[in-house]
């Protein structure tokens, strides 16, 4: 059994088609088919049921898949660990980001990291904070930027607090409240809101603030797309509560501080179990970027390799 055969099996299982799987693996279809057939003969069971229209996993194939995937991941990790001992950083790196990242300049960080470590393959995954924490625990995401309500911290992952900020009201330029210098939640209670879907941490920040103020509000528009939320506000269809640094300069938008508005805390989180060399290297790169950006602020107390877990997490900065 060879690792390349396992890669071919996973590709066919994903694409459900030998031709598309061969294209994904950059190999001719006949070679891929031959290798899978040889593996099936070695195992003594068929992994795929082939028809003229599609390819499906057999029961044996479905049973084979998880261990095959784990074997490939273990082999890739072994190679990455060995290379790291001589300063070569390679292997996959998956970074999760919420829709409203403000504490880290992700494109700049990725650009600097890629130039320093071109052998690392980087994938970005968008999602809500809860989804990304679950993905870190499952080994599907290496590092993620999260946004959580005040007094809520990530569970069963390592993390540091990056920043905390009070959300601002985002209004259309011609909204009746757009000329105000400050607002309170009660001023917004009768407005129609655009917000993240119910049950997400992005939504929980505002829901908890209104509950604490014993106010009710109407969320008519729900979306994970911040661009869509801002477009709804521009059209005068809704108002929103968003991090101030995330709201772009636009003549059709106005952001107004809300004195009793929700506080959002941004965290950097990663696995509490033996991060891969690429993940450690990216944490180091972020550490350097944040240290450079805070030369005139409080010092960063420690290196990423010694960052503590949950209860011992350190605060890098507070806004």
Beta content comes to: 15-25%
Query: Could you give the order of strands across the largest sheet?
Result: 4-3-5-12-6
Order of helices and strands: HHHEEHEHEHEEEHEHEHEEEH
The count of DSSP E runs of length 2 or more, i.e. the number of strands, is: 12
Number of helices: 10
- Arithmetic mean pLDDT: 87
The radius of gyration over CA amounts to: 24 Å
Taking the sheet with the most strands, its summary is: 5 strands, mixed
Name the helicity range. 25-40%
Instruction: Find the structural class using helix and strand composition.
Output: alpha/beta
Q: Segments where pLDDT lies below 50 for 5+ residues?
A: 295-319
| Ends distance | 55 Å
Shape: elongated
3D architecture notes:
This protein has helices spanning 3-15, 18-25, 29-43, 59-84, 106-116, 129-137, 185-188, 201-212, 226-234, 277-293, and strands spanning 48-50, 55-57, 91-97, 120-126, 143-149, 158-166, 168-172, 192-195, 218-222, 240-242, 253-257, 263-270. With 319 residues, the chain is an alpha/beta fold. It has a five-stranded mixed β-sheet with strand order 4-3-5-12-6. The protein has a three-stranded antiparallel β-sheet with strand order 10-7-11. Strands 1-2 form a two-stranded antiparallel sheet. Helix 8 links the parallel strand 8 and strand 9 (218-222). Helix 1 (3-15) crosses helix 2 (18-25). The longest helix has 26 residues, at 59-84. The radius of gyration is 24 Å and the shape is elongated. Mean pLDDT is 87; it is low at 295-319.
